[in-house]
Amino acid sequence: MxxxxxxxxxxxxxxxxxxRIVRSATFEAAGAELPGAGESALVARYGAMAEGGVGTIxxxxxxxxxxxxxxxxxxxxxxxxxxxxxxxxxxxxxAVHAHGCKLVVQISHCGxxxxxxxxxGPPLGPSDFAAxxxxxxxxxxxxxxxxxxxxFAAAAVWCQKAGADGVQLHGAHGYLLSQFLSPYYNKxxxxxxGSIENRARFLLEAAxxxxxxxxxxxxxxxxxxxxxxxxxxxxxxxxxWVCKQLEAAGVDAIEASAGLGVKDLASxxxxxVKSEADEAVFAAQGHAIAxxxxxxxxxxxxxxxxxxxxxxxxxxxxxxxSMCRPLISEPALVARWQKGDTAPARCxxxxxxxxxxxxxxxxxx
Length: 365
Ligand SMILES: Cc1cc2nc3c(=O)[nH]c(=O)nc-3n(C[C@H](O)[C@H](O)[C@H](O)COP(=O)(O)O)c2cc1C
Fold this sequence. Notes:
Number of helices: 11
Order of helices and strands: EEEHEEHEEEHEHHHEHEHEHEHH
Bound molecules: flavin mononucleotide
Structural class: alpha/beta
Helix content: 25-40%
Low-confidence stretches: none
Number of domains: 1
Distance between the termini: 37 Å
CATH class: Alpha Beta
Shape: globular
Mean pLDDT: 93
Radius of gyration: 19 Å
Number of strands: 13
CATH superfamily: Aldolase class I
CATH topology: TIM Barrel
Strand order of the largest sheet: 3-4-6-9-10-11-12-13
């Protein structure tokens, strides 16, 4: 059997890529307004990572409609900015493609965690629930769900027209689609709550609508929680069922994450990664998914060492691994490894990329 390495060229969820390293979605808290001021910031940031050897970049989550944003500077994929978005995105794609890298846009609705609403109003989600302190959320009506499904499809078409290499539905980390999947948030008694068939309905409708809108060949990926790690959260067994349905709905790749972001075991495993034993924190769950589906699975969560990545790729049925925090502090990490310096990422999981005082040490050598 051929051994896999992180430097293999391969096809990942319909996308030909130069290696098995993906930059996992990382919210551009720098204030990426497109079109506008964020453009040059994204050209610089994505360009540096593309030049730095990453095979595929997944953008930070971008908002599909007026109720979707987690924070004011979250990039909008809706409204009257489409023409400007196309032009801004062309520059970003050029910066990425110049280095043989691919770019996939994460299309997202933050649901009960959306704090910015163009038209006022409360955060929307599966049930009445205050996911953000002092911001009580409201259960969506079935009409709002149907509209949001269409908004996902329209946002995907924006990205396709603007020249992005693919889109990823954000179905993880306790944002809208993940909230519907999770009994922790979803207390509905209609067709969108209760059984996993019902809790997955919104995500599956969104996946089918995007697939119908972008055509059969455009890469469509989904990031999902393999499990929620909270009492009464999504289980691995339910997630595996959902992933099989996603494959049937025309999804091309699954990125397997975990954690609802409500307790210590969040989407960002906040524990420091001090040794190889702390790496690959969700690999077991991702492997279980990969064994159940025929589409590629990307594993995310505390990868720091190339030998660990190679071992995980071969011990598990993964097509790729993705990283977030290591590429914030070291955008040229993959190129460093490729040149033969295989020391682990210098990211120390200080998590200052998440919380004040923002800003970690960035290594550019
Ligand atoms: C600053 C920051 C922003 C993030 N933004 C997103 C996001 O927009 N969408 C998403 O799916 N995950 C997001 N994540 C989670 C990462 O994609 C990844 O799943 C997590 O950090 C674990 O990978 P790591 O150990 O390589 O950092 C973010 C993480 C960090 C640290």
